[in-house]
């Protein structure tokens, strides 16, 4: 795992800088608008091009050198951050600029997911797939612990432009490690040879591949349902905490750091243990745990301790869900078609996730908030906070029900044996 570990180390450093920038964007957007809808819209525009372009990106990833694709994607993301920095330094940064640059960055990020995921297959043997995915999740969790703390501490001293300069510096670490590591090209399989055609045909190949395999098709449907509710929970967490804490950056940073510590704990456990022998158990039980022990506690809480518990367990179970799921796909799909297969899976799952992001803010502020104000007679501020909290509770139950339902279908329960 030497080559993979080197790439992973570069990603740890780079993700730290990116997470600090995203935290700064969150605080800036909230201070500018005071609305959960503004935060959900930024996330929506960041995800939109990634979702729409993923099938074409997956086809190109299978055609091109995956290492070059990863370098290209990382460079473009850094340039997008640099553009925001220039606008902020000029004193003309507006919310619509963030929307626009999020779309541009999302375009290039569409190539990143299928390239990184498919590269793991050529770098490692099958028995290390789950461990590798856990390490990637751990990298995200480590950045989640340190980034809010560092960003909250530095934001008042060096400003948002200073945070973005740190982000651009950390990008060099990811770029340098990718440069010195060799990423092998996958061997051509019979399926891969038969799938060759025009770019449009290859872009659609992944969808047909999934449709013809009952177990993988069932997993996609399961994640489509579960991720819709997960998206609502993940998007509403920050505005709810800011709403109930008097816009406290330190409390939000603390909750996010505690949550990231949960991700580190879950990821570390998976790295040393390797996960359950049947990975589907980690996926289904992890999804239920993330909903009932994570999102639900966030919605019910009104203090740092309860929010911290919910954030911890929400992130703790995420590596079990993600690493188990990706490891199943990596073991089932031929290496030379994984770019297209993973891209198709990603698109199908991310559409409901994107929908969840988009509806979360209006659902809480224009639906549940006014409803609670009408029946409860509370102030607009309290009704808004309660509406966000109720949205989190609904998301928690929905996510748990979606993942728990996987045990009712043999095609999902036995997907590893198919």
Q: Could you walk me through the main structural features you see in this protein, from its secondary elements to its overall organization?
A:
By secondary structure, this protein is mostly helical. It is 86% helix and 0% strand. The protein has one domain: MFS general substrate transporter like domains (Growth Hormone, Chain: A, Up-down Bundle). It has helices at 2-33, 36-63, 66-89, 95-123, 129-180, 190-194, 199-211, 214-244, 249-273, 279-300, 304-332, 338-376, 380-404, 410-413. Helix 8 packs across helix 12. The model has no long low-confidence stretch (mean pLDDT 78).
Offer a quick outline of the entry:
The protein is an all-alpha fold. It has 14 helices and no strands. Helix 2 (36-63) runs parallel beside helix 4 (95-123), helix 2 packs antiparallel against helix 8 (214-244) and helix 2 (36-63) runs antiparallel to helix 12 (338-376).
Q: What's the end-to-end separation, in Å?
A: 28 Å
Order of helices and strands: HHHHHHHHHHHHHH
| Global Rg | 21 Å
Q: How many separate domains make up the residues?
A: 1
Give the tags.
mainly alpha; Growth Hormone, Chain: A; 14 helices
List the helices and strands and how they pair.
Layout: H1 2-33, H2 36-63, H3 66-89, H4 95-123, H5 129-180, H6 190-194, H7 199-211, H8 214-244, H9 249-273, H10 279-300, H11 304-332, H12 338-376, H13 380-404, H14 410-413
């Amino acid at each position: 795992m030497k080559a993979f570990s080197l790439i992973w180390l570069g990603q740890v450093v780079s993700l730290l800088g990116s997470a600090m920038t995203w935290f700064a964007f969150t605080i800036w957007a909230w201070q500018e608008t005071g609305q959960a809808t503004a935060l959900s819209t930024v996330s929506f525009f960041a995800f939109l091009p990634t979702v729409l372009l993923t099938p074409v990106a997956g086809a190109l990833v299978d055609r091109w050198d995956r290492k070059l694709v990863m370098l290209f994607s990382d460079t473009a993301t850094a340039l997008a951050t640099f553009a925001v920095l220039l606008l902020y330094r000029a004193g003309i940064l507006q919310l619509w600029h963030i929307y626009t640059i999020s779309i541009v960055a999302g375009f290039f990020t569409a190539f990143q997911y299928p390239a990184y995921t498919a590269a793991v297959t050529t770098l490692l043997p099958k028995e290390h797939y789950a461990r590798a995915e856990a390490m990637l999740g751990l990298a995200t969790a480590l950045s989640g612990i340190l980034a809010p703390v560092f960003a909250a501490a530095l934001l008042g001293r060096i400003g948002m432009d200073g945070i973005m300069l740190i982000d651009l510096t950390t990008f060099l670490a990811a770029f340098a490690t990718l440069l010195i590591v060799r990423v092998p090209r996958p061997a051509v399989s019979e399926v891969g040879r038969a799938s060759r055609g025009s770019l449009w045909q290859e872009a659609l190949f992944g969808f047909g591949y999934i449709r013809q395999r009952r177990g993988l098709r069932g997993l996609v449907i399961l994640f489509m349902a579960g991720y819709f509710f997960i998206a609502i929970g993940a998007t509403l967490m920050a505005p709810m905490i800011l709403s109930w804490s008097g816009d406290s950056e330190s409390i939000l940073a603390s909750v996010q750091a505690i949550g990231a510590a949960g991700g580190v704990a879950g990821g570390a456990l998976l790295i040393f243990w390797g996960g359950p022998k049947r990975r589907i158990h980690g996926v289904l039980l992890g999804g239920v745990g993330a909903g009932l022990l994570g999102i639900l506690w966030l919605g019910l809480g009104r203090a740092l301790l309860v929010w911290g518990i919910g954030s911890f367990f929400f992130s703790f179970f995420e590596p079990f869900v993600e690493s188990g799921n990706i490891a199943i796909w990596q073991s089932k799909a031929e290496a030379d078609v994984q770019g297209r297969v993973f891209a198709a899976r990603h698109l199908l799952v991310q559409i409901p996730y994107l929908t969840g992001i988009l509806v979360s803010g209006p659902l809480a502020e224009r639906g549940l908030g006014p409803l609670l104000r009408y029946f409860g007679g509370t102030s607009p501020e309290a009704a808004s906070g309660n509406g966000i909290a109720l949205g989190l509770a609904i998301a928690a139950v929905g996510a748990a029900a979606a993942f728990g339902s996987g045990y009712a279908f043999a095609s999902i329960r036995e997907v590893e044996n198919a």
